[in-house]
Amino acid sequence: MAIRSDDAQTPRRGVSTAAPISARGLVKQFRTRRGLVTAVNGVDLQVEQGETFGLIGPDGAGKTTTLRVILGLLTRTAGESSILGYDSMRDTYAIRERVGYIAQQFTLPPDMTVMENMHFFANVQGVSREGQRRRIPQLLEFAGLSLFTDRLAGQLSGGMKKKLALACSLIHEPQVLMLDEPTLGVDPVSRREFWDLLGNLRAEGGAGGPGGLSAPPPDGGGLPRADPSTPRAVTILVCTPYMDEAERCTRVGLMYRGQLVACDTPKAVKKLVPGRLLEFVPSDLESATPLVIELQGVLAVQSYGLMLHVFVDDPAKRQPEIETALAAHGIACTGMREIEARMEEAFISLIQKAVAAGTPGAG
Amino acid sequence: MLRRLKRFGALVRKEMTQTLRDRRTLAIVLITPVIELLLFAYAVDITVDHIPTAVADMSLDAESRALIQALVVSGYFDVAVYLEDEAQVVQAIDEGRARAGLVIPPGFGASIARGEGQALVLLDGSDSFTVQSGYTAAMAIAQARSLDLLVQQAGRMGFGAAVQSLPITTSARILYNPNMDDLVFIVPALAAMLLQILAVNLTAMAVARERELGTIEQLLITPIRPMELMVSKMLPNLLVSSIGLLTVTLMGTFWFGVPFQGNPWLFAWLSLLFIVSGLGLGLLISTVSQTQHQAQQISMMLFMISLLLTGFLYPRAPMPPLVRFVGNLIPLTYFIRLARGVITKGVGLSFLWGDVLALAFYAALIMVLAAVTFKKRLD
Predict the structure, then answer these.
(1) Nearest chain A CA: its distance from B53 CA (Å)
(2) Do A116 and B379 touch (CB under 8 A)?
(3) Helices (DSSP H) in chain B: which residue ranges?
(4) What's the ipTM?
(5) What pLDDT digit, counting tens, does each position of B329-365 carry?
C-alpha cells in the first residue's frame, strides 16, 4: 500500500522511519525585480504519523511557500524536505500519487460538475473502477454534496467548494493531506463543518492522537476506509489564519518572516505567553493603551475589538493599579477580569516578541 | 501502463467535456473562419487592373490616340483625367486622383516615324501591386504596339511578304489556372492560413488559461505527466479544427468553385498533420506564456509573420536566407505548398514527400518541445 508500483521512484530514505512530513533547513528564495527575496528561511519541521500540524502566522510569513516547496510545487533553494520519505524535488511523482492537497484558491475545474470532478481526480490518481463505485458516494455523503452531484463546481458556494476540494483530495486515500488555508473566505458554520470533517478523518483508524479535540460525528461513522488493513490515520499539515482552527491541531508551528519561531502543542504554545491575562473595556481605548504599557508589572498589551488585553505578572495586584492609573486620566474600565490566554493572544504575543527580537529574515 | 492510460483517458474526457460545454466559444471559433474566408477571398485581389490613369497627351495625333486606346483596351488602365503636362500628372498622382500617369510628348507621331517615339508612364510607387501590374502591362502594350507599327512599316516599304509574321512568337499556357483566376491561387492558401490561425489560437490559450485560473496547481499535484497533459489539450481541439478544415475546404470547392484536382483523402491526412503542427505550436506558445494575454500577443505576431513569410502572399524564393529560415519555423510554409500541390496541381505524394516529411518531423518536434517547456512546478 505504501509504495504503488507504476512509476514510483525508490525513496532515498526509509519510508517507514522518516516522519510523514519533514523539512530540514528549508530555504526558498524568489528572484524578483527588487532582488532576491527569502520567503522561507531555514525551516525545520517534523510532522509525525497521524498528527494534524497547524502552520500559523501572519500573511506573507511564508506558510504557503513552505507548503508548496515540501510538496514539490516550487523548487527548493536549500535544505531538505520530504513526504513519506520521498524527496520533494527528486521523487515528485511518487509524492503526487500519495498526497491530497487543497490549494488556497479554488483550483478545481469550475466548468465540470461535482461528479465529473470526482471521477476525474479518481481516474487521474488511478483509483479502480470498483474503488470509485464504493468511494465516491461515501465521499460525497461525507462532504454533504450528495444532492449536488450535477452542479458545476464553479457554481457551488464557498463552503461547498472547499468540501468538494477535500473530497477530491481524499479520493485516492492519501496518507498525507496538505491544506493551504482551506477555510479562507468560508462562513463560520461551514468552517466548523469542514474541521469536523477533518476530525472524522483523524478519528478513523483510532489514531486520533492527543489532539482528538473534535467530537466524533453524530452518526458515529467516520469516512470508511477501503482497506481496513491500513488503520493509519491521515497525517495532516494545514496552514490557517484562524486561531480557533489552530487550537484543533495536535501541534502548531508559528511562522514569522520565513522562520518557525515557535512549534509545540497548542497548550504549550499558550504557555509561552508571558504572565497572565487581564481583559477589560476602557472608555477611551486609544489613550488607555500607551498609559497601560508604561505601568509597572505590565508585560504586553493587545487591543482586541473594543477590549484591551493586558499581560501582567500578578493579576490580583495589578488590576486595581491599572484601574487607578486610568481613572487618574478620566478613563473608566468596565468588566475587568482575568481570562485564559487563547491562541489568538499567544500568537500576537509571540509575534510581538519576534518583532522585538528583530528576527532576521525576509526584507 | 494501465494507470497511465487511465490517467490519460480521464484527461481527455475532462478536456472534451470542457470544450464541448462552452458552446458559445465553440460557435465563435467555428464561424470565424467562414466569415474570414468570405471576406478575404473577395477582398484580396492581387492582380490590379483598371488603374485610374492621368493622361497628358501633348501630341494629340493619331499615334498618341492609338497608344492611349491600346492601354485602355487592355483593361489595365482607365483614363481618369486628361491633363496638360507632366507636372499636372504628377500632381494628380500626389493627390491620389490617379495611380498611374501617361505623358506623351509633342510630335509623338513624327518621332515614331523616325523610329524614336517615347512615352512616359508614371506609376504610384507607394502601392507595389499597382507598380507590378501597371509596369508589366504598360511594357507589354508598348511592345505590342511597336511590333504592330514595325509590321506596318515593313509592309509599306515593300517587305510585306517577308514580315507577315514575327520571327519568334511565344505562346504561354498557364497550367492549373488557365484563366488566371486569383481565387484558384488564393483560396487554398487562405484556407490553410485560416486553419493555422484556428489551430494555434485554440491551444495557445489552453495552458495559459489553467495557469491564470490557478487550476494548474491542482493538476500539478496529481501524477499527470506533461506530455499527457499536452496531448489531452490537443485532442478536442483536433476535432474542432477538423470541422473547421472541412468547412473551409467545402466552401472553397463548392462556393468559390476552386477545382479540387487531387486526392481528397491525401489532403485530409496531410491536413491532419498540419493541424497537429498548428495545435502543437499553440501549446508551445501556451506553455511559455504566463497569461492568456501574452499568449494572444504571441499568436498575433505569428499571424503577421505567417502572412508575410510563408508564401501566402509573397513568393519565398527572393527572400534572404535568414528570413526564409524564419518562414521555415511556421507549419503553414510547408502546408501552403502541399495544399496548392494537392488542390490546385493535383499531384501526389511522390512529388510532395519532402514537405510531408518536414511537416511530420515538425509536428513531432513541436509536441516534445511543448511538453519539455511545460513547467511541472509553479515557479
Answers:
(1) 60
(2) no
(3) 2-21, 23-43, 62-73, 86-95, 108-113, 128-156, 182-204, 206-213, 215-220, 226-250, 264-288, 292-309, 321-328, 331-339, 349-373
(4) 0.79
(5) 999 999 999 999 999 888 888 889 999 999 999 999 9
